[in-house]
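Hi R.,

Here's the chain you asked about this morning:
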Amino acid sequence: MLAIWQILSGTGTLPENILPSPVSVVAVCADLLQAGELQEHLVISFQRVTFSLLIGVSVGVVLAVLSALWKVGESLIDPLMQMGRTVPILALVPLFILWFGIGEPSKVIMIVLGVVFPVYLNTYAGIRSVDAKLVEVGRIVGLSQWGIVRNIVLPGSLPGFLVGLRYALGLAWLLLVISEQVNALAGVGYLMNNARVFMRTDVIVLGIFIYAAAGFFSDWLVRVIEKRALAWRVGVQGR
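And here is the predicted structure, written out as C-alpha cells:
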C-alpha cells in the first residue's frame, strides 16, 4: 500500500496538496523531531490520555463492583450509567468549554467520561456472568465475602474487564483527537489544527499516523496482557 501510494504521488496522480507522499511525511517527521517540536506535543498527548485512562478505568471498575455486588448500589448506579451512556459525549463539548475553559480539566473530563462507560458495562457483565456454583464452592471451603470477591468474582470478571478496556482505549484516543483540535494549546491534535490553518497536509497525515500507531500499540498491549492473564481459559492462546 505504501509503495502504491508513493508511486501515485510520484507520478502526480495524487497531488501533494491533496495527499502528500510517504517520503514527504517521513521528511516532515524528521524535521519536527530535529526541532524538538514533535516530542513536546507527543509527551503532552500521552500524559493526557494516560492520566484520563487511569481515572476513567478506576471509576468504571469501582462503580461496576458496587453495582454488581450490592443491590442498593445497583438501584442507585446502574440506571444513571445506562442513561449516561446514551448521551453523546461530543454534545457536551460546548458545556465543558463554558464550565472548565480550554485548559486541561475539560479535556481530561471528556476522555474520562468516554472511558468510564465501556469499562463499567463490560466489568459489570463480567461480574454477573461468574458461575454461581464457584461462589457456592467458595462459601463451602470457608472463604469470607471479601475472599470470594478477591479469589472468584474479580478473576472471573477479568475477561469482561479486558474487553471493556480495549473499547475504552479506542475511545480515549478518539476523544483525545477531538479535544486537542477543539480546545487545546498543545498536543498532537493542536499540531494538526495549526497545520490545517497553514494547509500543511504532510503534518496532518503525520498526526493521523501517530494516532493510528498509538491506538494499535495500545490494543496490542491489552491483547498481550489478556493472553497472559487469561492463559487458563481454553482457546485463548493461539497456536
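One quick note: The mean pLDDT is 83.

Cheers,
M.
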